[in-house]
Amino acid sequence: MAGDADFRHGRAPARPAYRRRMSDQRDAAVLAENLRKRYGDTVAVDDVSLRVEPGEVLGVLGANGAGKTTTVEMIAGLRVPDGGRVSVLGLDPRRDRARLRQVLGVQLQRADLHPLLTVAELVALFRSLYPDPRPADELLDLVGLTDRRRTRFDRLSGGQRQRLSVALALAGRPRVAILDELTTGLDPRARRRMWAAIERLRAERVTVLLVTHAMEEAERLCDRVALLDGGRLLLTDTPAGMVARAGAGNLDDAFVALTGKEPEEPR
Asked: Which string of DSSP letters, residue by residue, matches 191-236?
């Protein structure tokens, strides 16, 4: 897999440069403009704008309650914004929902799947939804679940369920993938396997929005990061650029300096 050698030697693979502009949507993979969302008196997302280029890995960072999940759920069409607009590969997530499902893969923090179906059966079910799905064996190998293909969903551990959710999100060969807390609950070996999966998606020019609490993960995988705090976008920059802006020594310290909060430890 692309990037494996770099990871084994403890360094992040080289990344392409990306333009940083908010303009027309013709060449953007994802364009979100002035998104707003309230829940009663609580402002969850307040005027957030993001542009993600084709093949880019954008990390979405922030403490709990910063608006990360709500933002990506609006981009995916799972929540209706109170204001603003979204375009994913030129498609409107609400108006073009059926077309968007064919090009967008989404893995959320919690997956509620049929408890009695096996891993192999769930993969087969999801693959049946797409005209040119990724091979089942390839999906299971990508997330390290080949030896669990005959295991029922209700007998999987939390980390195994998380990895299965990633496999299902990638079943249709999406051009854009939204991965929310990709490595939560995973042991170090499984976490590094998922990092290698992201590098494979990068090599395939899949655009990835990666919601994460793990600063090491963001530093290794992301071309740029978007830092949210209190529902507002504080900055969008490369990981190194975020560190430089904060005058910090690493991304953890930069996070604290810019938000006044400690990044949460991966569970």
From this structure: HHHHHHHHHHHHHTT-EEEEE-S-HHHHHHH-SEEEEEETTEEEEE
Give just the sign of the alpha carbon dihedral 157, 70, 254, 216.
positive
DSSP string of 145-193, one letter each residue: -GGGTTSBGGGS-HHHHHHHHHHHHTTT--SEEEEESTTTT--HHHHHH
How far apart CA 174 and CA 126 sit, in angstroms, is 13
Percent of the chain residues past pLDDT 70, beyond the cut: 89
**92-106 pLDDT per residue, tens:** 999 999 999 999 999
CB 224 within 8 A of CB 56: yes
| pTM (two decimals) | 0.88
Cβ(195)–Cβ(212) below 8 Å: no
Q: What is the pLDDT of residues 6-22, one digit of tens each?
A: 434 444 445 554 444 44
Question: Residue 37 CA to chain centroid, in angstroms?
Answer: 20
Which domains are seen in the chain, by residue range?
4-8+29-103+174-259 (3.40.50.300)
- Dihedral sign for Cα 9, 14, 20, 24, please: negative
Q: Which of 49, 60, 51, 100 is nearest to 78 (CA)?
A: 100
